[in-house]
């Protein structure tokens, strides 16, 4: 049965939590590059991460160094330089903000001589109603998130990033005291395909600092996330495999048969901050 629904995918971050992935596609063929890049409307040095795919979840990713990385809006070209202390991580040479309503192009030239490009449209930023919380344990004053996206519109795709921090609450300074959760509104999904997902239930004490960020995302990026959420196997929010047919928007300029993983997205962001009380 097809339903319009708010899809929830939680990634709980404690001391250090890594996402692991097995990259071979259905034919066992590794794509050639993994791209992680998100441009936002925030004034900052934006980041592009490049690596080679892993054939096993136990492998350490091999980063791609010495690439030529650029982002363009059709009029201005923003150049990126590699962090010499963190190989494979490229940052814009100067801080800038993406402009909602613009289409952006990411262009990569690797040391192997391959050229890749991808486009994404940055939707307008949307003011939103902050999340709701509910008291679940009156004795210990523990809360949980009861609702996100109260002004839900299925025609507007969004990702909600919620950061919880109760490290400053007395009695929690040396225990598990932080979490990060992601909620997605992606339109119509077949709920039968994702109910098997094992979502983490997070409770937090009074005084927890809450940061909620709403990312307005393009239909193209929403479609990619939809593929990942439906077809990726999840275990407590940690990615353990990526489907071979999750379609990246990165294309090889010389040979379209060469495949890439990951996505270049352009998102406008609105942020809200509050405290559990």
Automatic annotation (TrEMBL):
Pfam families, sorted: DUF4249
Instruction: Return the protein name.
Output: DUF4249 domain-containing protein
């Amino acid at each position: 049965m097809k339903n319009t629904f708010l899809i929830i995918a939680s990634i709980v971050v404690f001391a250090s939590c890594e996402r692991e992935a097995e990259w071979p596609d259905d034919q066992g063929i590794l794509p050639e590059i993994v791209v992680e890049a998100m441009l936002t409307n925030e004034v900052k040095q934006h980041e592009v991460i490049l690596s080679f795919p892993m054939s096993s979840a136990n492998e350490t990713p091999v980063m791609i160094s010495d690439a030529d990385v650029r982002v363009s809006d059709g009029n201005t070209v923003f150049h990126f330089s590699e962090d010499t202390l963190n190989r494979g991580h490229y940052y814009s040479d100067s801080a800038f903000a993406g402009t909602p309503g613009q289409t952006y192009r990411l262009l990569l030239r690797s040391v192997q001589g391959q050229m890749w490009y991808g486009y994404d449209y940055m939707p307008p930023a949307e003011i939103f109603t902050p999340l709701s919380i509910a008291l679940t344990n009156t004795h210990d004053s523990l809360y949980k998130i009861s609702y996100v996206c109260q002004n839900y519109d299925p025609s507007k795709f969004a990702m909600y990033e919620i950061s919880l921090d109760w490290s400053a609450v007395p009695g929690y300074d040396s225990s598990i005291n932080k979490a990060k959760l992601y909620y997605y509104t992606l339109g119509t999904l077949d709920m039968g395909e994702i109910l098997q997902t094992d979502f983490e239930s997070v409770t937090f004490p009074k005084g927890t600092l809450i940061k909620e960020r709403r990312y307005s995302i393009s239909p193209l990026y929403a479609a990619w996330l939809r593929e990942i959420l439906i077809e990726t196997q999840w275990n407590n929010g940690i990615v353990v495999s990526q489907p071979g047919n999750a379609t990246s928007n990165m294309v090889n300029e010389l040979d379209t048969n060469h495949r890439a993983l990951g996505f270049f997205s352009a998102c406008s962001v609105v942020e809200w901050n509050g405290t559990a009380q």
